[in-house]
Amino acid sequence: MTAVQRDRRFYVLLFLLFLVLGVNTFLYRSPITPLVLSADANWVVIGSLIDLAIVAPLLILFLKRGKKITVKSFVMWMVLGVVLARFLIPSVYFEPFTYLPIAAIGLEAVILLAELGLVVLLAWRLPGIIRWIKAHGESPLFLLPAAVEKRVGSHVLLRIVAHEIIVFFYAFASWKKHPPKGESYFTLHQKSSLIAVYIMLIHAVVIETIGIHWLIHGKSPVISVILLILNIYTVIYFIGEIQAVRLNPLSVKDKKLYVSLGMGKRMVIPFAEMEKIHWGKEAAEFNLKSKELITFIAKDFEEVPPHCVIEFRKPLEASMLYGLKKTYTKAAIRLDEPERFKSLFS
């Protein structure tokens, strides 16, 4: 019943959005425009600006279910609405409002500069953050994003920059480090083909880069250089991913599970938030494609089941690729030593 209501709400909002856009388009871009609008139609234009810069952005934001509505997202859609109004409304009617697109773009530029200021602040405080991580002697995979959020902020741009710092750290600065060992560490990849898969992908990207660069460079040097840069970054990312998997086994500290699988998936699971743990055949029965379940299962040449599925008392947050956050109610984990891990909870 809830799903039906949500679908109905979605289609009602979509209908209203098309109605707003359609009515304004018909008003200004149809044969009847000169008949219904006089040369002095300022109030009509003001109404259209409200439709396109306020009503339409709100409808779009409400249509994006599950996405948090923020001032920044509203301002972005508002600016696009004002620019659309500039192209939609003929110049003869829009002339008294020509300053609005410039003001809207200026507002967006101010927001962009503020975001760039956050990046500058992060660069200023990064040496101190690095010293703090080294003092703790822990992996930056979990500590760096938390330190950036605590000392600079949780803006999405900061999370992306922190993710890129982690990528280049593991690709270039982690080769002298060794995987942690001990009773509280559990590897997830050694009995899988994960590393082999990444090595194969690196070889494929390198061969593709050489071939495409040779074929395209003569015809379009710009596209060739762009593809070359993207492929180089892809290779760097895969190298960093291999190192992140090797150096960050599942760990148990302070009655919490710190579990990750590379740089694009990590989660902290407090013991107090574990409702139930399913093992063996019971765990294999779970649908691994469920949106409520996050999987920490190393890639293999064939599909393999999890050794356990942990159900949470409440949804827990996980950090995904480029600092994106998602919540899950269950986690599926496959380990190299499942029995040793199971003994922690017996």
From TrEMBL:
Domain of life the protein comes from: Bacteria
Key words of the record: Membrane, Transmembrane, Transmembrane helix
Presence of the UniProt keyword Cell membrane in the record: no
Transmembrane segments annotated in the record for this chain: 12-29, 41-62, 74-93, 99-124, 156-175, 195-215, 222-240
Keyword Phosphoprotein part of the UniProt annotation: no
Stated name of the protein: Beta-carotene 15,15'-monooxygenase
